Write a sequence for this structure.
């Protein structure tokens, strides 16, 4: 099969358009780049509409070749393209020669989640993706992206998520009220806040709960503040705050620790 | 005082040279950029050799003006420069109009540290800086940068450290043996490792200990492996590993939690 040589190819243009949130929402698809991420999404059962690859990159990597063979056999449309064309659709600075157009996953929160993570205005893509990765590892049942948060399927968030996007139920809500609708009624909510009066390890995390993380610079929204009990992580030294991805992980793994001890 | 208008000014050239590790080591100084970081370093007692500033930026910010006045009164050489000159010495993409040349701090580890963090080949500047910030907040007594780690005073590490560099004893060791020399004899060492046999929360962190974090991609060095007991963070889902800055924070705050409970 001849490689695509034009950056104006319609499928290439469509893939490139998925770098924009509006297009991702309209097409309910996102771009997944790199061998590791494509492999993780594939293994998690994500539906690939098509896969772009650079033949030289496939020649150079047996794992890439194996994934390509497997996807082709499963009926995924696989499209060779020149390196220049590939660069035109990739978001990464040093593209790895493989990228897929993948349906946005439609995993929904369980009816009675044990632990839900809520991002309230987390705008940094690296922090949001790292939080997803940590949330999955800590056994969270789902993550909700609230108003003001980065789009969950922004390519940088997907990269930092290391595949968690395709294994963990995710919800995105433009309004706080929509977010509340996704949660079970009466789910106790806790807000990580340096000024909170309760230490995070004094919460009984063996009970169902939602953890809200607010934005690093300006703090949580008024809605989050009124809906949740504020908890803090006791800190030594002159540190005023923790990185949002770090604070989230510290609380989530304390919850995981308590749940392990109970069983 | 007339602003410096030439990027060839000797003091500007010297400041710019501090973006390179070799020059930082030779001159035992580093560049600290931005109002917050300069203020934090100053408050922590760091010795400023000089401070560069853009007059327009000082006009626009009363906090910046206050810091400048305080430093001038304390005898720090303060040098106005044009925005173009300032950009030539700054590492940041959007410089804030203030940057200081600061002596590398010379804080040493206490003779009997309670908890030491050891970075074994942590090369990512953001991770290294975030780890310093978390380490200070968790009450660590000092951080040692082992072989293969990023330079502690790399401008990106300093930015992510949020001032921890000037409040926390730091050591940098090109050889593992030099690092061991800085530790008290017989200090028990633990290595965070997804394959470790002991869960991190089963360690008695109320006792003196060193925590080693290895590089994300390739794992810890043979020296670290042979010197330390491997501990893991139990993980749910298909996650294979955590971000190094996250894994470090989870273990350090478990140590802090145990130490708080003991008292």
């Amino acid at each position: 099969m001849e490689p695509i040589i034009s950056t104006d190819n319609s499928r290439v243009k469509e893939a490139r358009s998925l770098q924009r949130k509006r297009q991702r929402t309209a097409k309910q698809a996102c771009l997944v780049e790199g061998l590791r991420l494509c492999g993780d999404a594939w293994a998690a059962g994500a539906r690939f509409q098509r896969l772009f690859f650079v033949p030289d990159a496939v020649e150079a990597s047996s794992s890439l070749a194996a994934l390509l063979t497997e996807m082709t056999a499963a009926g995924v449309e696989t499209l060779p393209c020149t390196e220049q064309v590939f660069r035109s659709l990739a978001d990464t600075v040093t593209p790895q020669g493989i990228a897929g157009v993948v349906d946005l996953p439609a995993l929904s929160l369980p009816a009675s989640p044990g632990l839900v993570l809520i991002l309230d205005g987390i705008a940094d893509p690296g922090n949001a993706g790292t939080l997803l990765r940590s949330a999955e590892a800590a056994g969270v049942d789902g993550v909700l992206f609230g108003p003001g948060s980065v789009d969950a399927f922004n390519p940088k968030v997907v990269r930092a998520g290391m595949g968690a996007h395709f294994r963990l139920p995710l919800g995105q809500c433009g309004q706080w009220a929509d977010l509340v609708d996704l949660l079970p009624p009466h789910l106790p909510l806790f807000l990580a806040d340096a000024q909170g009066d309760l230490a995070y390890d004094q919460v009984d995390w063996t009970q169902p709960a939602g953890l809200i993380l607010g934005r690093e610079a300006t703090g949580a929204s008024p809605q989050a503040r009124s809906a949740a009990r504020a908890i803090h992580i006791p800190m030594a030294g002159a540190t005023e705050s923790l990185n949002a991805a770090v604070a989230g992980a510290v609380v989530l793994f304390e919850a995981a620790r308590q749940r392990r001890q109970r069983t």
User: Anything to note?
Assistant: Chain A has two domains: 10-103, 115-262. Chain A has a mean pLDDT of 93. The radius of gyration of chain A is 20 Å.
